[in-house]
Design a protein that fits this description.
By secondary structure, the chain is an alpha+beta fold. The chain contains 17 helices and 18 strands. A hairpin with a 3-residue loop joins strand 12 and strand 13. 45% of the residues are buried.
């Protein structure tokens, strides 16, 4: 009787496991990308098209927000009766949305770039700023399935609670591979490499797309992976990073020492010759990881993570979203081809010590924080720039007040910046009232 019960329990468990996976592996396969469409060009147009067709609800999370075309699409959707909720970081330009009557809230440490529009989800690296819209090294994924939309809405609902939590620590143990909004994500990304040690093969591959890389946790896992695989069965790894990664050449050298010829690192725009509008130094802003494992029986399993966070300590302390696509061979193949393209692109320089030496004098400019500040400075209205310059001369840290005084809420992690009843700009009201900045 006990054996029969165990067999029944096993069958039930198998049924539930298949039921959980089948919406991704089954219904999502109705189009050529298993339900996930990779967006390299036309990212803004795709987002605006989804907003234009929205009928039930729209949720937007982005740290920087100055794209007037996207904001115009949101205003139009709100005016036709679609509920819109927007979470932004402290220096986004969202007054237009607040004045239109949308729910707009400031979220401390928000770094996620996520849109949930009815049953469609857009995840990627775009900040939906004017600068981000014209960058070439950005990527996003459009997924149009009820299951993914439900996951996205649950993740979106967690943002207020994560904003009130403390800074995240990089986890030291594996985390279930589900899509989630969280702090501290680079640790379980690193854990994905353990499959290479469990099933070693020279055909195993890992591609990493990240703006910066200063996660010692991730580098240690790369070192352990190569140390744990036989010399003739080591995986091939490719890292595609922005020049900001050159602020941590020690970690890059450790990667090269661990992988040798089986590991390559390419740096985007190392000589800073690529410019946006002839003004801003272009950067690689993509965030994704692809992994393929060739098993002993000859089968290959793929796994893709589309992330909004870099492999950096700073990103681990911020609120980010990771989207997992296990078994999506089409999406994996597209990203692998993207890496092949970068290998032959002169804008991507193969890393070696000479590259680091040639750019050592520009490390400060290339930092990830400076890259984010670049977008924030571009979004600042003229009056705020003058105010920031005045405060800098006075030795004060320039910050942009975003809210009018709110008793007993100024110290909270989230503060509303408008419910539609305000006719005056919240930013100007804050300046006139002398309120404290909500970070």
């Amino acid at each position: 009787m006990g054996a029969i019960r165990m067999k029944i329990f096993s069958l039930i468990s198998l049924f539930f496991a298949f039921s959980i996976m089948s919406p991704i592996m089954g219904a999502d396969q109705e189009n050529g990308y298993n339900g996930a469409t990779l967006l390299l060009e036309g990212r803004r147009d795709a987002l605006i098209a989804q907003i234009g067709s929205a009928q039930k609800s729209i949720g937007i999370a982005t740290p920087f927000f100055s794209d007037t075309k996207v904001q115009g699409a949101l205003v139009a959707a709100h005016e036709r009766g679609v509920p819109v909720t927007v979470y932004v970081a402290g220096r986004a330009k969202a007054d237009r949305l607040a004045h239109a009557g949308m729910k707009v809230e400031l979220v401390k440490d928000l770094h996620a770039k996520l849109a949930i529009i009815d049953d469609a989800v857009v995840i990627g690296s775009d900040n939906w700023s004017q600068v981000s819209a014209v960058r070439s090294a950005e990527l996003a994924v459009l997924v149009h399935t009820p299951r993914t939309a439900a996951q996205g809405r649950r993740a979106f609902a967690r943002i207020p609670y994560l904003a009130g939590a403390g800074a995240g620590a990089t986890p030291q143990h594996p985390t279930p591979g589900e899509s989630k909004m969280m702090r501290g994500h680079s640790g379980y990304k690193a854990d994905r490499m353990r499959a290479f040690v469990a099933d070693p093969s020279s055909d195993n591959r890992l591609d990493v797309f990240s703006m910066g890389l200063d996660s010692d946790r991730f580098v240690r896992e790369v070192e352990a992976t190569y140390a744990g695989c036989p010399a003739d069965m080591q995986p091939r790894m490719r890292f595609f990073l922005d020049k900001s990664a050159l602020t941590h050449t020690g970690l890059l050298d450790r990667l090269k020492a661990a992988g040798g010829d089986r590991l390559s690192i390419r740096i985007f725009n190392a000589d800073r010759s690529q410019k946006i509008w002839g003004r801003f130094t272009d950067l690689a802003h993509q965030k994704a990881i692809t992994r393929s494992v060739t098993h002993s029986n000859g089968t290959v399993s793929t796994h893709v993570i589309i992330s909004t966070g870099n492999l950096c300590v700073r990103s681990d302390q911020e609120v980010n979203f990771d989207y997992h696509r296990p078994g999506d061979d089409a999406l994996h193949g597209q990203l692998e081809k993207l890496g092949d393209t970068y290998e032959s692109d002169s804008a991507w320089t193969l890393y070696h010590s000479d590259v680091a030496d040639a750019t050592a004098d520009a490390h400060a400019e290339a930092s990830g924080a400076a890259a984010d500040d670049q977008e924030a400075r571009y979004q600042m209205p003229r009056r705020s720039k003058r105010l920031a310059a005045k405060r800098a001369l006075q030795g004060r840290v320039p910050q942009m007040p975003m809210t009018a005084p709110q008793p007993r809420r100024a110290s909270r992690k989230i503060a509303s910046i408008g419910d539609g009843s305000q006719r005056r700009s919240p930013r100007l009201a804050a300046l006139r009232a002398g309120s404290r900045t909500v970070n």
